[in-house]
């Protein structure tokens, strides 16, 4: 085990001490149950040949010929949300965040750790195939969403074209390629102890894909605009992903060139730009928090700039501090956008807890207004808990926004497989247009997508639970992925 990797796991083990220190903050919900369900959700999003241990048994095999039109094997991976498209950018980000959740809080997951690692591997198996099928090529999407959305079909019944899309040296996609590199690099650390050979394959593929992303610069939104926009357009550009990918490769490999890359390119790639959200599109906040650990732990002066800007982000979230600019609903939920707002809430909760751990383990604090205000690790844990508790049911509607958790939760989730009769109950296919009667039905979904966190309420805490209200009722893998780590923290903190 290399020095950097050993340090990462040593540092991760400190999360238990941090959780214990703030244990009183976690009393409230059955966070362990929520953690189990949040991981189970990923089984409902699986594409490909399902394993014998598949627990959400209403799902069946799907997408079994994906890639065949291009003579490549692209079977597997995840559907990102409620449709039947496999989008590479959010899938890779989901994988990075699942891996980061395990690296920071895996020692707190106990019985759920094996399933969390399996959720990562379901994606990385696919991403490896997408990255190695052809030289200087990354396959980044299966299915045209414009065509897919004309039908309301179970994934098991898909009869729309499974078109394949790729980025190449002539049609670059540095954003999706660098995020894929980040996902494979982060996962390589997860597997280093449990499957060394697989870990080596992951890091080797990550290095190759990052090199491709950096050598052939450009946004995949320009190369593939008709099928990725407006669904997963890279609005932030690709600079943030290059710095993010390099940061994970620096963490995972023994190659010092990645730290040199960060030091040489950080300024032009956004190291000194403040941004106040962290999502599948914009990685600047995550990069700064990740790299600030190097300054806090080892006092690497070149990384101090990341600590400063990570502090700026934290200050933007805390009411009453210099730099505060976040918006909260009357019920106390962080609010960033009208569509799928909970994606920003779960990513923020994870970042708050991770940064709290970094600060707590190194005797640091976040400084606002040039040091006029000091924010402690406990302050960050408290804010994260409010956001997680809101999702689980402590909100004006007294509703859990996680399907299957609590007594009251969304019944009409915007999700094809969940809303249509399962292949077990209705073996014959439900044709394209016939499925829309289920979309517009007022009945609850027949199949429970356990653990799915939906888009969530609006800026006044309002939530309309009907299936066609995709802005609020559609789940997504990248909503759940960071929540896995946050729930692991609170599940452990709540134990005596």
Automatic annotation (TrEMBL):
Enzyme class: hydrolase
Record keywords, A-Z: Carbohydrate metabolism, Cellulose degradation, Glycosidase, Hydrolase, Polysaccharide degradation, Signal
Domain Glycoside hydrolase family: 31-487
Active site: 414, 465, 474
Protein name: Endoglucanase
Family affiliation: Belongs to the glycosyl hydrolase 9 (cellulase E) family.
Matching InterPro entries: 6-hairpin_glycosidase_sf, 6hp_glycosidase-like_sf, Glyco_hydro_9, Glyco_hydro_9_Asp/Glu_AS, Glyco_hydro_9_His_AS
Lineage: Eukaryota, Viridiplantae, Streptophyta, Embryophyta, Tracheophyta
Gene3D superfamilies, sorted: 1.50.10.10
EC number: 3.2.1.4
GO biological process: cellulose catabolic process
Source organism of the structure: Spirodela intermedia
Keyword Oxidoreductase part of the UniProt annotation: no
SUPFAM superfamilies, sorted: Six-hairpin glycosidases (SSF48208)
GO MF terms held by the record: cellulase activity
Catalysed reactions listed for this entry: Endohydrolysis of (1->4)-beta-D-glucosidic linkages in cellulose, lichenin and cereal beta-D-glucans
Secretion signal span: 1-19
